[in-house]
Amino acid sequence: TPLGRARSLPQSFLLKCLEQVRKIQADGAELQERLCAAHKLCHPEELVLLGHSLGIPQAPLSSCSSQSLQLTSCLNQLHSGLFLYQGLLQALAGISPELAPTLDTLQLDVTDFAYNIWLQMEDLGVAPAVQPTQGTTPTFTSAFQRRAGGVLVASKLQSFLELAYRVLRYLAEP
Amino acid sequence: QCGHILLSAPIVRLGDQVTASCIINQNCSHLGTEWRIVWKLEPELHPRERQQRLPNGTLQSTITLPHLNHSRVLLSCCLHWGNSLQILDQAELQAGYPPTAPHNLSCLMNLTTNSLICQWEPGPNTHLSTSFTLKSFKSQDKCQTQKDSIPDCVPEDGQRCCSIPRKHLQLYQNMSIWVQARNALGTSISPKLCLAPMDVVKLEPPTLWALEPSPAMAPPQPGCLRLRWETWKPSLYIEQKCELRHQPRLGEAGWDLVSALPARTPQYELCGLLPSTAYTLQMRCTRWRLPGHWSEWSPSLELTTTQR
Amino acid sequence: QCGHILLSAPIVRLGDQVTASCIINQNCSHLGTEWRIVWKLEPELHPRERQQRLPNGTLQSTITLPHLNHSRVLLSCCLHWGNSLQILDQAELQAGYPPTAPHNLSCLMNLTTNSLICQWEPGPNTHLSTSFTLKSFKSQDKCQTQKDSIPDCVPEDGQRCCSIPRKHLQLYQNMSIWVQARNALGTSISPKLCLAPMDVVKLEPPTLWALEPSPAMAPPQPGCLRLRWETWKPSLYIEQKCELRHQPRLGEAGWDLVSALPARTPQYELCGLLPSTAYTLQMRCTRWRLPGHWSEWSPSLELTTTQR
Predict the structure, then answer these.
(1) Fewer beta carbons below 10 Å: N end or C end of chain B?
(2) Is the CB of residue B117 less than 8 Å from the CB of residue B193?
(3) Which residues pair up as cystines (chain A) (predicted)?
(4) How many beta-carbon contacts under 8 Å exist across A and B?
């Protein structure tokens, strides 16, 4: 059963993951607040059209839903999703001098979290043979696109983390 | 990209007219046909607007702000899509003034930091990011002609002063100095100073001491005070003259002045004062026979004259 | 050059033997023939000396300091010339110790500066210029094997601490950290630490507030206090447990402790206290279920319990 394998996940790993999710959510919220305050870009719903044209993907977590939890595939999706957002955040570089520190912290924390999951998958012997490589990330051609991209990426990352948090807490339950 | 904004100019003078166009090209054709461009302005303004569909199918909306009187306006070009307003592009309009000439430029040669420190007043707010640069050159005459250049002195952010290090200075030769202010709308320069750094030395005040009574000396006369002083140590090599001012500590009497005093005296007797009266004394000095600025007055020395 | 000094070694261990030679070559033949080398040492020492004229006409004087017990000696090789003593060359001898291993290395993760700050104690004075470097590497295990390197952290002059910026850290993975001390006589390294930055987070204390009485709530029981608290804002994402200590403001009673309290509570009633008594309360928190350090105790909150 999926839960059987969950017992193989160390409690400290799950607790660290939960803390990292909360930390990244806090980083992400700060980026969203700053984008709203500085550039009046406060609602991702206003940027759906632009998101389509920029091609900002949403990372799937289908194997992590509580109804059909498959642990190995869920860990893999968690890692791939974080890896995708790491690349998207990197593509936002040059967003603006004021936002750069917040963006850097967010990207470092996402990279750390992805790395921890990868190590755990290796420990469980379920890590894919080859580390994933960044697919084609959107190119942002103007300051506005980088800021709008920032709003979209942050909001997609927050919903991704919401799902991740739920499954991690479920797995961490004694 | 689905839509983008073009500005007549991103930065204009306050009060000038500005036009902005938003062009929605065919890339947005997947959105169907019947939609209108909606502008969102922050702060809220209500410009004249003209929408037209161009032959090649693109939709263009142009707004005109006859007199822009906000220094910052955030323009968003949007489209109704489903029941949401979609932002397609954003642009920031800035308005302000070209810089006026900086004024009250003054410089002092600081013997402690060994640098020429100049300060100025920037003039009224231009509402735009304005950079100030202290420019100068060495001259062999009265600053009519440039002999050697001196690197620009760029002040720290927001500072209204700049410090030219010793290695760029010839202390006893004239140099021409001025401040340049520059922003997106123009450049202006301050009136030029022509000075030799040593002629604008900032002297710290001298130090005043009471002269301790000693057996070798007869006690001071009633109504007299014995004191000595020494100019500020780093300026010992500079020939100076000094002034002493004194007034009774209590009462309304103003300062009495003793001028043309030498730079240092091992022993000086100040007489003609009221006996057994507490006096406050201060001294200042200036570079003398060569040009220079007076130092501030020294801290007060409190002395009391002997009884009759 | 007329004469020059050769040292057996410019830097030696305190107490070691040192020899220095001064060689006057024929270039000085214009000085006539009968002169002697005279050594001047600062501080004054009286080494054994041997002068000899070599076949090729050069004159060599060698001095031996059997046990050098000064950390600095200035050697001057001189010649009598006319009635003056001419200095021909100078050399500085340094003596000291190789560095002992730095000790008491400790690190804290600072969430405000987002950096890992490590400090250490250098050990006894070596009398020589000694540089300290904080070295570290990332590890996937218990620091037995290095995964990725981390750039050396060089402290500011004389500082006994160094700060590794966030971009070089993996907050949840182990890293090996040590200090290397190096001077002319040797190198030594401190014992190695193995830690994950998040496990050594420096938490600022929580904030304690009195709960304002409100119509919606019944007044507190006699001998009870109502309060609330919140952990330090930058650490909100860290799961923590807290401890509350309280003691009557007056009198000799020690602290009473309430432990295992949650990280934040909108409302908490502390009972079992003396009625109408002024109490001092403090709280501290620590990262919990995951490793961490206790914060300092919060500033005191002064509250008085209601009468009976």
Answers:
(1) C
(2) no
(3) 36-42, 64-74
(4) 43
